[in-house]
Amino acid sequence: MRSTCLATTKSDSVASMIAMPWTRLVKALGTAKYSRKNVGDPAQLPACLGNSIPYVLRQLVFPLLKELWSMALQWISGKIARKHVWSDGLFTLSIHCPGVGQFESGQFLQVGLQLPEKHLHRPYSVASPPSETLEFFIVKVDVGEVTPRLWALIEGVSIDVSEKATGGFTLSHTPVAETIWLLATGTGLAPYIAMMREETIWQRHKNVVLVHGVRHATDLAYQEELEQIQVRFGNRFHSIHAA
To answer: Could you report how far apart the first and last alpha carbons of the chain are, in Å?
Structure first.
């Protein structure tokens, strides 16, 4: 019997997939000591670059890329249609945002708020298939810049969603196999909820095994929906939870 596996290994699957390439890049470039003074001196810049690439990337290149990415985003103005609280700080926002382009389950969108001084946004995996109302499974990080603001939102409030989704964490990037294992911790469950609401995963795979780990049993979200999937697909679906 052949099996294939998808895995999200952090509290948010998008964060884990985005952070790893940059981490590896910086590590590969070395960890030589740098001089902040030299970086600011044009005469010393060529020599400084040779020994201070990680610093230059972090202080100059990365912020520029982030700013260019933000400028390139096209936003759809949506509204909070529903806020479901699973436990303290763990919630799902249903956002009515017609106009978001078609995407594959497993991809992510940017969710943002316009502040007086800037537009604040972060990427979140979509916890629902494409439709006019999309779900985002979020955990509040007390020291975070975005999630406390999202946690405070109420139904009817305006919120921005990026027009186009991106990301390669999709079924189209996995081989066809009899059994697919879906491994997740925390809010990494989000893309799998979207996948299991569509027919594709059930057409491609005879068996679907979901393994979901959380810190506390109260953080086991979407339990009623998972029970309904179990009833519908019987022995084809297996759900394993660890708290």
So the answer is: 29
